[in-house]
Amino acid sequence: MIQSLLIILWVVFAAMTVSMLIYKNYHNNQILDVTLSKEHANFSEVKKVIRGFKKACYWVLTLSMGLSLLMLVNTIRSYAEFYMLALVIINLFANLFIVHRYQQKLLSIKNENAWVYQRTKVITVDTNVSKEKGKSSVSPIWTWLFLCLSFIPVIFLIIYPEKRDIYPIGLSFIGPLCQISTIYLYYKMRNQHASALSENTEINKACARKEERINTTAATFFAFAMLLFWILFNIFLIYIENDILVALSLVILMGALLGIANWQQRKIRAVENSFFGEISEKDSSIYEQESTWKWGCYYNPNDPRIMVPKRVTSMGWTINIGRPAGKAIGIGTFALIIIILGFVFYAGLKDYQITENGSKIMIDAAMYDMTLEKDQVVSVSTIDSIPRSNRTNGYGGVNKSFGHFSVDGYGKCMLYVYSNVDKYIVLKLKGNDPGYVIINVKSKDKTDQLYQTIREWAAQ
After folding, report:
1. Residue range(s) defining the domain that contains residue 211
2. With 70 as the cut, is the pLDDT of residue 84 above it?
3. Of 192, 233, 276, 424, which one's alpha carbon is 20 to 30 angstroms from that of 243?
4. Is the pLDDT of residue 154 over 60?
5. Among residues 68, 85, 116, which one ends one of the domains?
6. Per-residue confidence at 66, pLDDT binned at 50, 70, 90?
7. Are residues 16 and 93 in the same domain?
């Protein structure tokens, strides 16, 4: 369990670092959201700031990964979930602070050298370019094919219903839903605005065709990466039953998405340079853009859009929190995250309370309380280990698990167990929903005492 958490944590840190490093690339006449001409971007002072930014990002990554290894220490391992969340939050704010700091450095260099560009954006529209839409794109049939293939786990669970005990069929629809989002991305990328910076219509049209091909290729690769992840995830979860390999499938997905985004950005930049290189280098074509990305969020009250592309367009969409609707969505999302984190902290800190009250045994757990009547219990026994189990609705942490689980050989169970205690009390119930309740307490001796108490209670 702890190894899987470490892998996931490292993937998050690596993804954040790569995102920050992509942000420092020269794109749309900006570096780190600071407007610069290509000539000014090549100044030694600017390059020195970028080198410092890269070094700071790598230091944060190294330090974060080093601190994450403390999760292997027994003292911290007991609070692994909290420590993991704390590291993610610290890593996020550290990266945002670095971006803000080096933005200020670039702005200082810009002010010291009096690099001033025009304030008004001049938009050149070539109506002939719009006629090229759809002519050079990768066929959409691939993304629709990937959507169909993503239903393989659903079909598998329909054919083998016994597998639904460890993998609810509702979860198998997550893959198709994600694939639908990639279809939406494909059409958005195909209809994306193409540059029209030349007075020669044929050049604009040729550039539009090239960019459309690159954008739709990136969207198709994105859809394939999502499908590959989904298939691997299901194979590792259902057939191989290895948590580390399940985490590895996430590593593959993140690596693929970041690689595709980087490839797309480099190809688009190369195409625009080849068609408009001489034009785009002139300061007259550059306008002073107000920074709209503040601490990782898009904020632009003058932009009527609620959803806007991320800095790297193939990575999806984000909310414009400068608009009232965007604020509402942002606040709602933030509140949901706080509620989820609050539940994780509350569930991780709260201990189980198991008490006998006449003909009843009451189990007090966060959001998963349970009361057992004496006539519900068929038998009471103990085991030294729990077979492979899957959480269907509950909490599964490093140190304890509770809620609804499907356990091999037992079927649907309610678990209230501490992971580091090698003794468990099994209460077999009438019926099968759940068919068993498996419990223990914080030590083996106390679990033995509880077992004797429950046996005496059941025999009365």
Report:
1. 119-291
2. yes
3. 424
4. yes
5. 116
6. very high
7. yes
